[in-house]
Amino acid sequence: MRDVAVIGIGMTKFGELWTMSIRDMFVQAALDAIKDAKVDHIDSMYVGTMSSGLFVGQEHIGAVMADYLGMTPIPASRVESACASGGVSFRQAFLEVASGHSDIVLAGGVEKMTDGADVTEALATAADQEYEVYQGVTFPGLYAMIANAHMNEFGTTREQLAHVSVKNHKNGSKNPNAQFRSPVTLEQVMKSTLVADPLRLLDCSPVSDGAACVILCPLEMAKKITNHPVKVIASAQASDTIALHSRESFTTLNAVKHAAEKAYKQANLTPNKIQFAEVHDCFSIAEIVVTEDLGFFGKGKGGQAVEKGLTSLEGKIPINTSGGLKSKGHPVGATGIAQIIEVYEQLTNQAGDRQIKNAKVGLAQNMGGSGASCLIHILEAV
């Protein structure tokens, strides 16, 4: 297997992009990534999208995007793993380059969520239809169950959940591509509309449009193209039961734990060697649980860590420097690639006001549904 590097990135703003179609968004992000990589062609491409058929009535997304990007007849494939679709796109591109089958591969993700579809119904397809959705459970409801279990088992507080949102909005205010660029206070989060007890509106990621793309190639080729290649040192994927009630515990995400174990082994690193991470904070409780299952904090200590500032930009391990899904936005198919872009920008000193000093190793964790699928990638500045 060859060493693989990221050499180019492109991303639209995230938000309610009323003047752009799903094709427009993807093409903009892809062209920007190709330009940034300084390559004159790509050999293959992957498009992560969760529910383009439900959101905009368009399937066959791989061919659509290759067509409108002007890249036919190259291979172009759509990949799907609910909200982890972008992460799978990146992993497939990584494996294709690592295997030696292709040299320059585009990994992208896109979702157009605001064109009139029933978003709750579309997102619910990532849950168990027979045993969860049929009974009326929504994703805020599922994560509310996780939050209540965590609070009961470990004493996690409502204020600690709110601190996740406050931190991520502060980070997002420094990200020009973020959907929400206004900081929020603890009081605002605590008094926002109740969605599914104990989760309130400002605990929940928004409905978003957006696209993100990256270019991967062999590391040796990357060194000839750029002075700052970013090496992919781990790519891991795992799954769990799709239904929450089938798990031994509501407060542990086994897909995250298993993917993390594989990723750390591949990278020959321990969790304390990770300097910063982008994690899947679709709800505030998700960030807390994920940081525990990644091994950054002991079980039940994630809420305390946020409250103490350990995950802030200046903390022990900055989490979601981009603003996370909460502030940056969550166009579900694009999220996993946007996380990779944030890690890349940090490692190449391009993160502006949210830049971490001496960033060398970063992690991206992308998750589908209530944790039924998980992708973890670790990247390193070369």
What does this molecule look like?
The protein has 382 residues and is of the alpha/beta class. It folds into 2 domains: 4-119 and 208-225, 3-Layer(aba) Sandwich (Peroxisomal Thiolase, Chain A, domain 1), CATH 3.40.47; 127-203 and 232-381, Peroxisomal Thiolase, Chain A, domain 1, CATH 3.40.47.10. The protein has helices at residues 22-37, 52-55, 61-69, 85-99, 119-123, 139-154, 158-172, 186-191, 219-225, 254-267, 284-293, 302-307, 324-328, 335-347, and strands at residues 4-11, 44-48, 76-79, 105-112, 194-196, 199-200, 209-218, 230-239, 276-278, 361-368, 373-381. The strands form 2 sheets. A 9-stranded mixed beta sheet has the order 3-2-4-7-1-8-11-10-9, sandwiched between helices. A two-stranded antiparallel ribbon has the order 5-6. The mean pLDDT is 97.
Question: Key features?
Answer:
single chain, Peroxisomal Thiolase, Chain A, domain 1, alpha/beta, 14 helices, nine-stranded mixed beta sheet, two-stranded antiparallel ribbon, 37% helix, 2 domains, 382 residues
Number of domains: 2
- The structure class reads alpha/beta
CATH superfamily of the largest domain: Thiolase/Chalcone synthase
User: Can you tell me the CATH architecture of the largest domain?
Assistant: 3-Layer(aba) Sandwich
The CATH topology of the largest domain is given as Peroxisomal Thiolase, Chain A, domain 1
Q: In whole angstroms, how far apart are the ends? A: 18 Å
